[in-house]
Write a structure and sequence with these properties.
- The structure is a single chain.
- The chain contains five helices and five strands.
- It has one domain: Dehydroquinase, class II (Rossmann fold, 3-Layer(aba) Sandwich).
- The two termini are 17 Å apart.
- α2 packs parallel to α5 and α3 packs parallel to α4.
- The structure holds 1,3,4-trihydroxy-5-OXO-cyclohexanecarboxylic acid.
- The site of 1,3,4-trihydroxy-5-OXO-cyclohexanecarboxylic acid has 10 residues, from loops.
- Pathway: Metabolic intermediate biosynthesis; chorismate biosynthesis; chorismate from D-erythrose 4-phosphate and phosphoenolpyruvate: step 3/7.
- It comes from Paeniglutamicibacter sulfureus.
């Protein structure tokens, strides 16, 4: 809970997602991370939630953000970027805080290279949204709020 008691969710983005809009637009589209932030704030605001929005290229910063989220937010919408496919540490952090996590991938990772087919995050995620473009973040916010209301 924040000081004003408005419920909050964390939208967390991993490495290279700061480049959204210019990074491989044929795969990730033309929307920027600022656009994603606005979409998330609008979707959350409709349901009376506030958004904390963070992107980092550093695994440890993401782990610290997951730890800090415990007791502060209702859950996390998380695009771990390439750490999805490599990071036991991020999976352990999610297990450790016991918050619902919605895993989001802009692209359909299952149509791409084989190394993108495995996720260390999926077994500890409440829900997984892939291949919906940046609308996946909106769906993630809505799903998290749906779960929080249960
Ligand atoms: C991604 C998919 C990952 O495989 C990739 O490393 C990313 C972005 C996505 O949103 O589609 O950085 O998570």
């Amino acid at each position: 809970m924040s000081e004003n008691n408005t419920p909050r969710i964390l939208v967390l983005n991993g490495p290279n997602l700061n480049l959204l809009g210019t990074r491989e637009p044929e795969i990730y589209g033309h929307e920027t991370l600022n656009d994603v932030e606005e979409l998330c704030r609008a979707a959350a605001g409709t349901a009376g939630y506030e958004v904390e929005f963070l992107q980092s290229n550093h695994e440890g910063v993401l782990i610290d953000a997951i730890h800090a989220a415990r007791g502060a937010v209702a859950g996390i919408v998380f695009n771990p970027g390439a750490f999805t496919h490599t990071s036991v540490a991020l999976a352990d952090a999610i297990s450790g805080v016991q918050l619902p996590v919605i895993e989001v991938h802009i692209s359909n990772v299952h149509r791409r290279e084989a190394f993108r087919h495995h996720s260390y995050i999926s077994p500890v995620a409440a829900s997984i949204i892939v291949g919906a473009g940046v609308n996946g973040y909106v769906l993630g916010v809505q799903q998290l709020i749906h779960l929080a209301g249960k």
